[in-house]
Amino acid sequence: MNYFIPIVFVVCIYLPGSDSAGLEGKSVIFTKPTSTSYVRVLPSPFTKLTAFTVCLRAASELTRGYSLFSYATSRHYNELLIWYYASGHISLYLSSYIVQFSLPKMDALLRHICVTWESKEGLVTIWVNGKRSLQKIGGKGLFVKGSGQFILGQEQDSVGGGFETSQSFVGEITDVHMWDFVLNTREIAIAYKGCFCTGGNIINWGRTSYQSGGMVTIKDNNDCIF
Fold it and tell me: What is the C-alpha to C-alpha distance for residues 81 and 67, in angstroms, rounded to an integer?
């Protein structure tokens, strides 16, 4: 008796923009200015934030302004935006409220940047490589609305889109974390050294799912010790 044994081929295809989980030990590299290259980060859900800490490592040789971290909602496209100016200034946008800091210009060396804010007193602080800026007051009594889109590499002019080549990031971003509270001085130092094992509870670079599109390269960052 002859038996027919079917042969089954399984083909796995990676679709650009499909979900992937975590970027532990990885860097996202944006190689050229485009209106199509981005990484969408899919955070733990929240209704609203009355405090936060955002930390990341970034390097860029661009001589124009660009977005380091963009969060848009139906209420405002700059619900939470960390924007770098060519002059070296970094601004925190909370909807229409802007707090600006004068800092050393970005260059080819990765630097660790943390931005903290809390609504009760409106206290805003930026940390660069573990060193604290002066403290400023801004956005007192405000809150950050939930159910929005987090984007790396682009500034949003609509929720999840409206990208412009002239505002795109070119360089390397890694180690992005976000907490729904303000880290203290010791915790910032630990995060700078890359030893904050638990990571952010809103965005955790090692665990949070992401989607990428356009000309985005993901590589090992080879940084065992910061």
Answer: 7
pLDDT in tens, 24-67: 999 999 999 999 999 999 999 999 999 999 999 999 999 999 99
CB 204 within 8 A of CB 177: yes
Condensed to tens digits (0 to 9), the pLDDT of residues 82-130 reads: 999 999 999 999 999 999 999 999 999 999 999 999 999 999 999 999 9
What's the whole-model pTM score?
0.89
Evaluate whether residue 8 is within a structural domain: no
**Which two three-digit tokens encode residue 73?**
């909602």
Domain CATH for 195 = 2.60.120.200
User: How far is 55 from 115, CA to CA, in rounded Å?
Assistant: 6
Residue 220 neighbours by CB under 8 Å, 6+ apart? 25, 26, 27
Residue 24 lies in a domain: no
Q: Determine, yes or no, domain membership for 188.
A: yes
Domain that holds residue 90: 30-220
